[in-house]
Specification:
Shape: flat
Radius of gyration: 23 Å
Number of strands: 3
Distance between the termini: 60 Å
CATH superfamily of the largest domain: DnaJ domain
CATH architecture of the largest domain: Orthogonal Bundle
Strand content: 5-15%
Largest sheet: 3 strands, antiparallel
CATH class of the largest domain: Mainly Alpha
Length: 248
């Protein structure tokens, strides 16, 4: 009895670490991560209850069969209504004013960085290394430079960190006699729909005007001439180009 109870307690822990790894690998948003955790935890609990004989197998198979039959029966109707629903949803979102406080997310091997559209401020959580789980804003310049040495193994991470340090400690290169090695802007690398959405701080559904406005607002704050960096500018431009190509 006790072993079964402990097993049920361990399941959410297993689900948590599984979801955390999936979220890190596929750059999920916090909302997507929470939803995935609830789904995985619920499936694990149901599976254990079925194995223990507390729930019949039909508890899973019956709803799945009913859902499949419903989809097959009404699939033609759903296909005809889908364009109308997308049009209605798009108009609803376009009519709703944009909320303040939009943020963009850039995730690298060592950092999860957030950029505020309104102020252009940025902060990030350390994902790996000596300062793991700490915010960059809580680190001193010496700590940031030590962390920078760790980040040199990943070009994206070091570029994002240099952009943060430059914005908050403009004369850090002179103070530390930074050699400037590894300052070339890396290739934009992997870009997909979800990553581009996060970089520009957008929410679905989107249109061309949304992409252009978000890009313009970010570049006004994070352009290299305004205290940003070549790396961030290139990342933002790549995200804009990717989404505009998708929408055409």
């Amino acid at each position: 009895m006790i072993s079964r109870f402990l097993a049920l307690l361990i399941l959410p822990i297993i689900a948590y670490y599984f979801v955390k790894e999936v979220s890190r690998r596929f750059n999920f948003t916090p909302r997507q991560t929470r939803l995935l955790f609830l789904i995985v935890a619920a499936l694990l609990v149901v599976a254990v209850l079925i194995v223990l004989g507390r729930l019949p197998v039909g508890f899973i198979l019956a709803p799945l069969g009913a859902a499949a039959a419903f989809i097959l029966r009404f699939l033609p109707t759903l296909i005809r209504l889908l364009p109308m629903w997308q049009l209605f949803k798009s108009r609803t979102v376009s009519a709703r004013p944009r909320t303040e406080g939009q943020t963009s997310t850039i995730r690298t091997e060592y950092l999860a960085m957030e950029l505020e559209h309104d102020s252009g401020n940025m902060d990030g959580e350390v994902l790996k290394g000596k300062f793991r789980n700490k915010l960059l804003s809580s680190l001193s310049l010496d700590d940031l430079l030590e962390f920078h040495n760790e980040c040199l193994a990943d070009v994206d991470s070091s570029q994002v960190l240099e952009a943060y340090i430059q914005r908050n400690h403009p004369d850090w290169r002179e103070q530390t006699q930074f050699s400037g090695e590894n300052t070339s802007v890396p290739d934009e690398g992997r870009m997909d729909h979800q990553l581009a959405i996060e970089v520009l701080g957008l929410t679905e559904p989107i249109n061309k005007e949304d992409v252009i406005q978000a890009h313009r607002k970010l570049m006004q704050k994070l352009h290299p001439d305004r205290g940003g960096s070549d790396y961030l500018a290139k990342k933002i431009n790549t995200a804009k180009d990717f989404l505009l190509n998708e929408l055409e």
